[in-house]
Specification:
Layout: E1 2-5, E2 17-22, E3 33-39, E4 49-53, H1 55-58, E5 66-76, E6 79-89, H2 91-96, E7 104-112, E8 118-127, H3 133-151, H4 156-165, H5 170-178, E9 183-193, H6 210-216, E10 218-219
Parallel strand pairs: 1-3, 2-6
Antiparallel strand pairs: 2-3, 2-10, 4-5, 5-6, 6-9, 7-8, 8-9
Length: 225
């Protein structure tokens, strides 16, 4: 679990507090603390992003360079609750897959999940050797159709989870596009739920029992840091 300082405007001698942000239920809920966050007011926590290394969940060596993004959507006396909104890989991982005498096939698309949210999905495929434009076009079409169809059956969180952490359809996708042209490398290198955010006028409703939150919160102390 990491320690995070939420960036807020200077507030003089106003008291600071710690709170624990938890993973969404899909990834363990209160059994999986993500970070310990420093804040002034509970409302400031809503919509803040918590970044965690993918290795925390996948235990895959490659995912040491993957970041998972969680948005805080609710704060209660028990802690801050998050939702999974995306992932991405470090640039060096992406560039390491691009090699000479191979063709790069990239798709960046936006799909709508069954709960009505828009998710941006970025995919990279590298062929075993140089291929024609027609092959690239067919591969992109297969990738686009596949992700769009899957999105219809899953919530944004489930879709991102299956694309980034479980890599549920990785082998199936590679098998499909390899029928068009043999594939050497494949990576879904970024996802992002673009419409998942608490509206400003609803932030107060996302904080439950503020007085109890502050009363039971751990107070920040410079001596303890």
């Amino acid at each position: 679990m990491v320690f995070i300082m939420v960036r807020v405007k200077a507030k003089g001698k106003q008291r600071k507090y710690w709170i624990i942000a938890y993973a969404p239920e899909l990834l363990g809920g209160t059994n999986k603390p993500l970070a310990k966050i420093l804040y002034f007011e509970p409302e400031e926590l809503i919509n803040k992003i918590v970044i965690v290394k993918g290795l925390e969940f996948t235990r895959s060596f490659e995912d040491r360079a993957m970041n998972l993004y969680f948005r805080i959507v609710k704060v209660t006396p028990a802690g801050a609750y998050t939702t999974l909104i995306g992932h991405d890989y470090a640039r060096e991982i992406i560039t390491s897959k691009v090699r000479r005498r191979m063709s790069k096939v990239e798709l960046i698309t936006r799909v709508y999940t069954k709960d009505g949210h828009r998710v941006k999905v970025s995919i990279l495929a590298m062929t075993t050797s140089r291929c024609d434009r027609i092959h690239k076009k067919k591969i992109r079409r297969i990738l686009n159709e596949f992700v769009n169809e899957k999105a219809k059956d899953y919530t944004y969180e489930e879709l991102i989870y299956n694309l980034s952490i479980r890599k549920t359809w990785h082998n199936e996708i590679v098998s499909m596009i390899s029928k068009v042209y043999p594939i050497r490398e494949f990576l879904i290198y970024k996802t992002r739920a673009e419409t998942v955010i608490i509206p400003t006028d609803q932030i107060k409703n996302s904080v439950e029992n503020k007085e109890e939150i502050l009363k039971s919160a751990e107070t920040f102390s410079k001596k303890a840091v």
